[in-house]
Design brief:
The protein is mainly α and 357 residues long. Among the domains are: 95-188 and 336-355, no CATH class; 190-215 and 264-335. It is built from ten helices and no strands. The chain has helices spanning 34-120, 124-146, 149-166, 172-187, 193-206, 235-250, 266-288, 292-309, 315-329, 340-355. α3 runs antiparallel to α4 and α4 (172-187) runs antiparallel to α10 (340-355). The longest helix has 87 residues, at 34-120. It is elongated and about 140 Å long.
Length: 357
């Protein structure tokens, strides 16, 4: 038997909306869906953050490369300065060797004159003249080699006093020549070589203890007492004040009167101090050689370095700068007189005596 077929289930077809009636549920556009909008905004924010981080990384890389290049240039300049300092030290050693040679020659001449004096001192007048000649020779050497006007003046006065004890009319002309040289030495400007040299040594000894400008720190503020009793007894207000005080201590603002304060590495600091000492040593050598140009150039460089790299507000640095400025204003390249006239007069007198015998 055939089973009766089930009636087919038919889905009622949607009828078109009648004009003026609302349409049935339909799919919204993508830009009106909240999830899509949020996803787009999140994607834009992520892209912007990635781009900003990428720009910051590029900026940091460029800054790092620039600073590395500057450090390389400064290292090269430091090597060049060190090479120049070594050359200057070699030249100074050569000049010092020349001065030592001259001093040895002077000592040799003095020994020879002493031997000559012992051989020729057979009478009182002859020994006195030889002694006067030796004194004048030493005075002339003091003027030419060491520039010591005071020692030369003392030597001339001693020679004149010895001639005055003889009380001989024949020595009047010789004494007049010596008196003229004494007056010239009295009028000559005095250069305190020993005092200036000692001051340069003292400055060189304190270079290592002078504070650098980059080592200056802002003064510590007196910390406020914690746990002070709140007159109102408000714990929240006390907590707020303590929090604000702690946050304020994290950051300190300092006004710098030198915005271009140089920052030095430990190696550069070491070379700076050593170069300052070499400058002062060069000024001392120039003082002994009476080289006014080199003397002032070395002191001017030392003064500029002290003012640029050191804390001039510190008392010791200020004293050092003032001392260097005073030494720079000193005149050492003066033209000193000689006592060749007195020396020639004594020698001529002795030759005249020998020929008159």
């Amino acid at each position: 038997m055939e089973t009766p077929s089930q009636p087919e289930s038919r889905v009622p077809e949607a009828k078109p909306a009648i004009d003026g009636a609302p349409a049935g549920p339909a799919q919204r556009p993508l830009y009106r869906q909240p999830l899509v909008v949020v996803a787009v905004v999140a994607a834009v924010l992520l892209a912007w953050q990635w781009y900003d981080n990428h720009q910051q990384i590029n900026t940091l890389q460029h800054e790092l490369a620039r600073r590395l290049a500057e450090a390389d240039v400064q290292n090269k300049e430091s090597r060049n300065v060190a090479e120049q300092v070594r050359e200057a030290t070699r030249e100074a050693q050569v000049k010092l060797g020349v001065l030592e040679t001259k001093l040895q020659e002077s000592q040799s001449q003095q020994i020879a004159l002493e031997a000559l004096y012992q051989e020729l001192s057979r009478s009182r007048d002859e020994s006195l003249l030889a002694d006067v000649e030796q004194t004048l020779l030493v005075a002339n050497q003091q003027l030419q080699v060491a520039g010591n006007v005071k020692s030369a003046l003392i030597a001339l006065q001693a020679a004149d006093a010895r001639l005055a004890r003889l009380d001989r009319p024949q020595l009047a002309g010789l004494r007049k020549v010596i008196a003229r040289d004494i007056e010239r030495l009295k009028l000559a400007p005095y250069v305190d070589v020993i005092g200036i040299s000692a001051r340069l040594d003292n400055l060189a000894n304190v270079i290592d203890s002078l504070p650098l400008a980059m080592e200056v720190r802002p003064p510590e503020t007196a910390p406020a007492k914690k746990g002070a009793a709140d007159p109102d007894g408000n714990a929240w207000a006390r907590f707020t004040r303590e929090l604000w005080r702690d946050l304020r201590d994290l950051v300190r603002i300092q006004n710098l009167d030198r915005p271009d304060m140089p920052l030095l590495t430990p190696t550069q600091t070491y070379f700076l101090r050593e170069n300052l000492k070499l400058r002062l040593l060069g000024a001392r050598l120039a003082l002994l050689a009476h080289d006014d140009k080199s003397f002032k150039a070395d002191l001017r460089a030392a003064r500029d370095w002290l003012a640029r790299y050191y804390d001039t507000r510190d008392k010791t640095v200020a004293n050092a700068v003032a001392a260097v400025r005073q030494l720079h204003d000193s005149q050492i390249g003066i033209e000193l007189p000689d006592v060749a006239a007195s020396l020639d007069a004594v020698r001529n007198y002795r030759l005249t005596r020998e020929r008159g015998r």
